[in-house]
Amino acid sequence: MSKIPPSELTKKALDSLLAEGLADEGDPRSEMVRLSVQHLVEQALEAIVRDLLGRGYYARREGDQPGSRNGYRRRRLKTAEGGVEFSVPQVRDISGARIKKLADRLQGRTEELESLAVEMWARGCSTRDIEAIFRDGDGKSLLSRTAVSEVTETLWREYEEFATRDLSEIEPLYLFVDGIAEKLRPGTKREAVLAAWAITGQGRKVLVGLSPGTKESTDCCREFFEDLKRRGLDDPILAVTDGAPGLIRAVEECFPRSLRQRCLAHRMRNILAKVPQEIQAEFRQAAQASYQAPSPLMAETLKDHLVQTYEERFPSAVKCFLEDFGASVAHLRLPPAHRKVARTTNLLERLFREERRRSRAAGMMFG
């Protein structure tokens, strides 16, 4: 039997991810969700064992207390972010039916687990959240009140550590910010979550912050950024956002020394919505040629050519193309090897999609 509970090993891996991020060959958002789900599940299973045995992991059996721990068995959950393996504690000389029932019940609740994993870091979990996720088919809690309290207290302490951690050691080259609607609590409407990730000078991708909020509100976004800066986050070279006015204003106010990049994935969707379908491929090619030009000067030349070619036929699309054009090509002022990863927030969005497609992160050349 391991001398360290699996949940503690998972927590160490999660701490390392949140503090140091991942190198360019990994996807830190997916890894964060997977590790958070694993940690949450292992905490709940170990809380059941403490209930059954009447003692903690490191405590010795007293007198004629029944049962003992008997190692762990690995099980696997299929989630939208890939497989999640977790450790199921085994017991002897006592029934382990409650443990098995909870582990079996989790197989059909991966979407709720992923949402709760996001909430853990966005605003912390309540006892109601834990009770809701660990109910059986009849609505009865699979955890005792004591176990629910233990799990909630542990997760809340970890959330507070994350929400107040020192960010001064992170050296952000590029900061990606977006606000996505996510169902944070089972049975409730989707709520906005502001999320920020940084690519550091060492080429690692690090989660900087998650917070309930809306990107439409300048005050909300400003408060989010000011909290990050109070905790030591420096201005990035470039900050990437979509076209939400509140988010744009807050970035310009809070990071005045940074370039601002308009997310080209959002921008292109907005433009093509104003073009007939039979012309979309042609218009896309012309717009991308300008947005992804070899230099800012070439981008201006190609922009003028697009305007001359399409303005009379598709004035609304051309107007959308010209809007905030300077921010759309800000990435062209970066080294060529960095431009592809610094011109869209799409990687950030993947964390919050109900149906996510696995893909290998684009390679980067930092040095």
| Nearest-integer average pLDDT | 85
Largest sheet: 5 strands, mixed
Question: What is the end-to-end distance?
Answer: 43 Å
Number of helices: 15
Based on CA atoms alone, the radius of gyration comes out at 24 Å
Number of strands: 7
How would you describe what is shown here?
- With 367 residues, the chain is of the alpha/beta class.
- The protein has three domains: 6-56 and 67-163, no CATH class; 166-261 and 344-367, 2-Layer Sandwich (Nucleotidyltransferase, domain 5); 264-343.
- The chain is built from 15 helices and seven strands.
- It has a five-stranded mixed β-sheet with strand order 5-4-3-6-7, sandwiched between helices. Strands 1-2 form a two-stranded antiparallel sheet.
- Strand 1 and strand 2 form a beta hairpin.
- Helix 2 packs antiparallel against helix 3, helix 7 (218-230) runs parallel beside helix 8 and helix 10 packs antiparallel against helix 11.
- The longest helix has 26 residues, at 28-53.
- The radius of gyration is 24 Å and the shape is elongated.
